[in-house]
Structure formats: structure tokens, C-alpha cells
Amino acid sequence: MKYEFWIGLRYTRAKKRSGGGRLGLGSDGFISFISLISTLGIALGVAALIVVLSVMNGFQKELRTRILGVASHIQVMGSPRTGGELEDWPGVLQAAARHPLVREAAPFVQEQGMLSFDQEVRGVMVRGVLPEAEERVADFEQHMKTGHLAALQPGQFGIILGAELAYALRTQVGDKVTLIAPQGMVTAAAILPRLKQFTVVGIFEVGMFEFDSGLALIHMTDAQRLYRLDERVSGVRLKVDDLFTAPRVARELLGLLDADVFINDWTRSHANFFRAVAIEKNMMFLILMLIVAVAAFNIVSALVMAVNDKQADIAILRTLGASPGSIMQIFIVQGALIGVLGLLLGVAGGVALALNIDVVVPALERLLGMQFLAKDVYYISELPSDLQWRDVGVIASVSFVLTLLATLYPSWRAARTQPVEALRYE
Questions:
Q1: 119 neighbors 168 (Cβ within 8 angstroms)
Q2: Is the pLDDT of residue 26 over 60?
Q3: pTM over 0.85
Q4: 3-state secondary structure at position 118
């Protein structure tokens, strides 16, 4: 192995010299102390980055799961030219289901309405579904607080409400609520709204306020009758094998379907939300990377002091035939070893904490006597963590590059040392 590595390693492990004053630190000892602080700074920064990004990935995954538990991967709807309705929906459903990546398909009716109960009125999005088909494209059943999705039977006019909507109406299972359709009935006297009483047969809670407070489920046949759609529906909901292939599948379906349809996937219907989460994650990455940058500045300080302290050593090496490039390599090795050690400690600590955050956070809550995410305030009351090794690789790579960049200037200064000037006062 080259001698530059061994000399750089020796400088990194330098012991304190005698005559270090009251603190007991000589120049070598003080440089080693700064190197230790730099190592701990890099380790702290890298660990913080891994943990924070893992938690943000966990929140993103949890919210995506909750949204897609109610929404669909892909929606095939009637175009505005057809009034937003599908007439030959069985043909569209069969054609879409022939795509190799489409796992399940289900028709639906989606209209606006108002619910009234005991002098309380709330605007809602009414979704007419076929319970047996809807359960294959959504996860309503596992989010039911009371009742079951199968309780929606054609002709019985049952309705399932979101938990926040049921709370706002002060209703519960068994109550009869009035659903008011905006399409009116024309009479000789005036245009009257269509009203129909529905029996509450279930309550669901997804954990997303948008759905819990504004979505009501009824049977598709009842919805077609109430909104006078005959056999037409609003569209077909599709579930694909991999949710991240939904945009590609949506584009390919445009060429497979002959009907006049509008196709939308979950990345477009919730684009603003997921884009905001991605921007927040990137900004947190940049902000926390400043911790690593500060630690890298400490490496610069440590190496500059080491170069000034080792002037005589550098001069002797130069007189023995060491090239300026070899002198640079010695101090690059010294700085790189500091960075690599901190990087390894940070990756190990960050990965361990990210994988065990479900144990660490409750322990901290018990120790401090407080709850970070109160159940009565937040829908997600536990910190989720989703460790992605790609993020770990990016963090480690960027941190290592910052460490190497921090070693360049002090190493360049060491390479410019003139032996005569360095040994003049020795």
C-alpha cells in the first residue's frame, strides 16, 4: 500500500504532544479533537437525514395508501361531449380489463347532492357503487367503523357515510336521512328538487378529511334511479398491479378504447398534493444537508491546522523526493478518513433508528410524558417510517463528495509548501 495512506492514517490518529498547557492538549491533540468533532458532525447530519427522509417517506406512503383506499388508480369517465356519462360501460369495462396490467374494474356513478337530517344540511359527493365490484378496486371494508359495504342492496336505498359527515349531521346507523339531488323536477308550479329518504347502514373512516367529511356511498342502481341515468354510469374505476404504472396504463388505454372517454389516473387527480409532499421532502434534504456541510467546514479547519503544524514534516518528505501530488494525497487521505468514519457511523445509526422508530418514539414519549402526535388531533398518530435504500445511497454519496471537496484546499496548500521556507527556523 502507498506510503501516503499510512502517513495520512498516522496524522489522523495523532496523539497529543507534551506541553499542551492547562487543557493538556498539544497541537496534535487539538487537531485530533477538531477531527473528532468533524466526525461526530458528519455522523449526526447523515443520521438525521436518513431518519427524517424515512419518516417523510412513511407519511407519503401512509397518505397514498389512504387516498387510494377510496380513490382509484385509474378512472375511465365519459367525456364532456357525452355529458360526462358512459352508455356502453360494460363494453368499456371489458376492453379495459383486457389490458395485462389491469387487475380489477368496477363501474360507478358520481354526482353531487345534499344530505339533510334533523335540521342539519351538508353538501356531499354521492358515489353509486356495486358493493361486490367496489370492494375489489377500493378498501372501504377495512375502513368501516360500523356496518358493511355489502349492506348496500338495490332498491332498499341504504347509504354509508363518512365519519366526519355522520358527526356533522349527528346521525348514526339506523337513522333516515334525506338526499336532495340538484336536478329538479319540472312541474306546473315550479322546478322542485328531487328528494329521497335513505337509511344509514354504515359509517367509514379512511383518515382523510376530504373523504370522511364529504363522501356518501349508495348502491349504483339507487343512484341511477335518483339521478335519472337509466343504464348509464359516470365511469369505470380500474385497479392496476403496480400503482406507479398507472400513468403508462392510462396512456395505453387511450389506444385500446374506441368510446369517447376521458381517462384520469391518481397522479393527476391528486397531483398538487403529491407534488407538495415531494417538494417538502427535497427542501428538507437540502436543509439537513447543511449539517453535513458545517461538519465539512470543520474538516477544512482541522486540515489547515494540520498543514501548518506539519510544515517541517512536509519539508522533509519533499527533500526525500515526495512530489507535490503525494503531499496532497496524504492530507486528502486524512480528511477522507474523517469523512468516511463519520459517514459509516451516521449510516449505521440512521438506518438503525429508522428501522426501529416505532420503538424509539414511544419510549421517548413515555420518558418525556407527552405525545408527539395526539390521536384527538392527528389522523396519523404514530410516526411511520419507510426506509428506502436509494435515499441512503444518495445521502452517503453527497456526504462523501462534500468531504472530499473539503480536503482539496488544505491539501493544495500543503503541496505548495517550500522545503527551504519550512525548515528555515527549525
A1: no
A2: no
A3: no
A4: coil
